[in-house]
Amino acid sequence: MDPSEVEFLAEKEFVKIIPNFSLDKIYLIGGDLGPFNPGLPVDVPVWLALNLKQRQKCRILPPEWMDVEKLEAIRELERREEAFAPAPSPYYMELTKLLLNHASDNIPKADEIRTLVKDIWDTRIAKLRLSADSFIRQQEAHAQLDNLTLMEINTIRQFLLDSLNCMYKLRSNLQPASAKSRLADY
Q1: HSE-CB for 173 with a 13 A CA cutoff
Q2: Spatial separation of the C-alpha atoms in residues 34 and 68, rounded to whole Å
């Protein structure tokens, strides 16, 4: 899975919009949306919210977690804890990028939010690199990935796969010849 695929999945998350048009309920494969009434909030997927915003048909309300005070608390918790704290959203980085690039005028303190999310991301990626380094040094065969997002896993994926392949090759070269021949039979 590459970053564009993770972003595609993030676009399926729901956000609240305030439409400035009227439309009855629309029936889509993924579920029913609406009805849309001017001034009344409605939940829609991010892809639809961005489309309507680009056509100036709505105002996007930021997700609940996209608040300066909440993000500061998450950043501090992430810095304090050795383990990964729960992410603000499974797609916090992708949603921040999408919403701030296309609807920053609808999000109060957009620059502060962008900085805080980047700080959280940097802290989590640094922890992930340290965890991966420790994992490789201890020659572990499996790892628990609690509280990581798809994008974070995707960032370290290739490094871990290459490292595990190298460890496997090294371990298989260290086995006695009789064990190698038994493995070759399988």
Answers
A1: 6
A2: 29
Tell me whether strands 58-60 and 26-28 are parallel, antiparallel or unpaired.
unpaired
CA end-to-end span of the chain: 30
| pTM for the structure as a whole | 0.86
What would the pLDDT profile of 32-60 be if each residue is shown by its tens digit?
Answer: 999 999 999 999 999 999 999 999 999 99
Peptide bond connecting 3 to the previous residue in cis, omega within 30 degrees of 0: no
pLDDT digit string, tens, across residues 98-115: 999 999 999 999 999 999
Number of neighbours of residue 74 by Cβ within 10 angstroms: 21
Region at 17 (left for phi over 0; alpha for psi -120 to 50; beta for the rest): beta
- Least confident window among 76-85, 90-99, 175-184: 175-184
For residue 131, the Cα-to-chain-centroid distance in whole angstroms is 18
